């Protein structure tokens, strides 16, 4: 049973935990590399997110719960007082504009580098990332991670719980635990990246253990109504090779359902795939689905509306869009009225810092005003 009645209307309100969302469009978490070097959110991030406050829910970008979990340069963090204070400026701006925010918590695992974090990466096993890493010193060869000890696993679980408390203190309505896209929790799920022989490796029930423990600790820390989990069945980002996708995710979702987080967020969801339908049937709470819109290519002319409606019809309760929100601060209004959408101008600007390609995308009103200023020939 879904948390909200099945509908294909993206603009119908929905409930999520304690929140009433004005529409079913979620701004997906997107790394933008605009934080300070120490992970403190910069003022421009408050402007960026407040511009997009019309989303039913904003899930803020991947944020590290501890120093060793940092992935790339200028990634935000949530483990110090300065981080909490910086994020409070962001949530204040979004709340002032009428929006609602969750914060995604992400530990990079082997996706990290001493040149960025000052630490050797930690991972389930010492299986190096096969490609170069982006660091403050440029592109460098990946450093083999060190396999986590059981004590380090336990301390990392505790770090996630404390990060969740910090996020609530910073004004977020909740957090999303990132178990997708090749980062630490996902690395524990995959056979290729997890070669452990202890209670955290081998059979499916062992490989899901770390993710289950993290989610349970976060739920215990701030309450299930404030917690979501993101998964990526079969996704090969960051050189992931799960090996037994069809076995991992029904077991994981069943275990998570017993803990009681508010939502499950499926990356690159395909309503025609049996696994998506099976996970929808197994998940008793709110389901957020993220459609495949073709990374690196142009956005669909409808801004992803058709793909979103297909997912709602297939049982999703909410739909998360990424690049459409990146390029369109007023995406909800554009989809509601059928107006043209801005295209992403340059994918290279996504991670470069500054306002260019970040806070300078025009709204419909700004476009009309600019066109009115152009003299007739």
Walk me through the topology.
Elements lengths: L13 E3 L2 E3 L3 E3 L15 H9 L5 E7 L17 H16 L4 E5 L8 H4 L4 E2 L8 E4 L2 E4 L4 E2 L2 H20 L4 E6 L4 H6 L14 H4 L1 H14 L4 E5 L13 H15 L3 E7 L4 H9 L3 E6 L13 H9 L4 E4 L1 H5 L3 H7 L26 H10 L4
Parallel strand pairs: 3-4, 3-14, 4-5, 5-10, 6-9, 10-11, 11-12, 12-13, 13-14
Antiparallel strand pairs: 1-2, 7-8
Largest sheet: 8 strands, parallel, barrel
Strands side by side in the biggest sheet: 3-4-5-10-11-12-13-14
* Integer average pLDDT: 95
Oligomer: single chain
Which class do the helix and strand fractions yield?
A: alpha/beta
Structure description:
The protein is α/β, with parallel strands linked by helices. The protein has one domain: Aldolase class I (TIM Barrel), CATH 3.20.20.70. It has 13 helices and 14 strands. Helix 4 packs parallel to helix 7 and helix 7 (209-222) packs parallel to helix 8. The longest helix has 20 residues, at 150-169. The model has no long low-confidence stretch (mean pLDDT 95).
What is this entry, summarized?
Helix content is 34%, strand content 16%. It is an alpha/beta fold and 377 residues long.
Give structural attributes.
377 residues; alpha/beta; TIM Barrel; two-stranded antiparallel ribbon; 14 strands
């Amino acid at each position: 049973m879904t948390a909200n009645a099945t509908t294909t209307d993206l603009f119908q309100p929905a409930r999520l935990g304690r929140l009433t969302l004005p529409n079913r469009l979620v701004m997906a978490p997107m790394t933008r590399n605009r934080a300070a070097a120490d992970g403190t959110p910069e003022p421009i991030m408050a402007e960026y997110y407040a511009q997009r406050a019309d989303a039913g829910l904003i899930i803020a970008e991947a944020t590290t719960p501890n120093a060793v979990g940092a992935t790339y340069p200028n990634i935000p963090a949530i483990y110090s007082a300065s981080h909490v204070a910086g994020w409070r400026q962001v949530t204040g701006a979004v709340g002032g504009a009428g929006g609602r925010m969750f914060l995604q918590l992400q530990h990079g695992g082997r996706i990290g580098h001493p040149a960025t974090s000052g630490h050797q990466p930690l991972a389930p096993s010492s299986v190096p990332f096969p490609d170069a890493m982006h660091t403050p010193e440029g592109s460098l060869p990946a450093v083999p991670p060190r396999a986590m000890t059981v004590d380090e696993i336990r301390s990392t679980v505790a770090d996630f719980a404390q990060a969740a408390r910090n996020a609530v203190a910073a004004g977020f309505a909740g957090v999303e635990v990132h178990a997708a896209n090749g980062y630490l929790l996902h690395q524990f799920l995959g056979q290729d990246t997890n070669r452990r022989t202890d209670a955290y490796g081998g059979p499916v029930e062992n490989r899901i253990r770390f993710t289950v423990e993290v989610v349970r600790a976060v739920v215990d820390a701030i309450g299930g109504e404030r917690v979501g989990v993101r998964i990526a069945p079969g996704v090969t980002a960051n050189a992931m090779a799960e090996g037994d996708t069809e076995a991992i995710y029904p077991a994981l979702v069943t275990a998570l359902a017993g803990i009681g987080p508010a939502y499950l967020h499926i990356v690159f969801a395909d309503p025609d795939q049996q696994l998506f339908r099976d996970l929808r049937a197994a998940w008793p709470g709110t389901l957020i689905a993220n459609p495949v819109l073709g990374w690196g290519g142009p956005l669909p002319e409808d801004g992803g509306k058709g793909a979103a409606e297909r997912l709602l019809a297939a049982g999703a309760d909410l739909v998360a869009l990424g690049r459409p929100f990146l390029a369109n601060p007023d995406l909800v209004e554009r989809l509601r009225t059928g107006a043209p959408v801005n295209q992403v101008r340059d994918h290279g600007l996504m991670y470069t810092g500054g306002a260019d390609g970040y806070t300078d995308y025009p709204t419909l009103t700004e476009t009309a005003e600019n066109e009115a200023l152009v003299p007739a020939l």
